[in-house]
Design a protein that fits this description.
Number of strands: 8
Strand content: 25-35%
Radius of gyration: 22 Å
Number of helices: 4
Oligomer: single chain
Strand order of the largest sheet: 3-1-5-6-7-8
Order of helices and strands: HHEEEHEEEEEH
Structural class: alpha+beta
């Protein structure tokens, strides 16, 4: 009889530990940032492909490290191409299907080829291979939205919607 009681206690302990483990995993999962294609259609006034020549990009370990984020310096921006408005819907639909996650160890600024989404409220978003952020019209950092698409995802998105080709 005592052995049956011990087996029941072991099972209860295993169930309790399993539930605790599952709750911990779910609680630690990052929440993705997504664009809404309908909101983009209503609010975006321009989509630009740029080259951002930012030499001082480094990774920061503080997920919310606002003090370590860099403002966008327009002197470092080279405009490569403007997406024609007739292609906005397709671009926004594809963009809204992407989950941008925020992990520890992300870049403090965009760098290299990037896309600027200019909004009608004088703010803009910049996303690149490893960075998605929101800025004021003056280039002041407002909010980190997530890590970028990674090299392959970003290159594929850009090459599908812009004429720019990566070497």
């Amino acid at each position: 009889m005592q052995k049956i009681g011990e087996n029941i206690m072991k099972r209860k302990m295993i169930i309790l530990l399993t539930i605790t483990f599952i709750v911990t995993l779910v609680a630690c999962s990052p929440i993705p940032f997504n664009y809404n294609s309908l909101d983009l259609v209503d609010t975006v006034v321009s989509v630009e492909l740029i080259y951002y020549n930012q030499p001082n990009v480094h990774q920061i370990s503080d997920r919310w490290g606002r003090a370590y984020r860099q403002h966008l310096d327009f002197a470092l921006v080279e405009y490569l191409e403007t997406l024609k408005e007739i292609y906005y819907t397709d671009f926004f639909e594809e963009l809204s299907s992407i989950d941008f996650y925020s992990f520890i160890g992300q870049d403090n600024a965009p760098s290299g080829i990037a896309v600027l989404l200019y909004f009608d409220n004088d703010m803009f978003d910049v996303f690149s291979e490893f960075y998605v952020g929101r800025f004021s019209a003056e280039g002041e950092f407002i909010q980190f939205l997530g890590d970028g698409l990674g090299t392959n995802g970003f290159v594929e998105l850009v090459e599908r919607h812009f004429t720019h080709e990566f070497q």
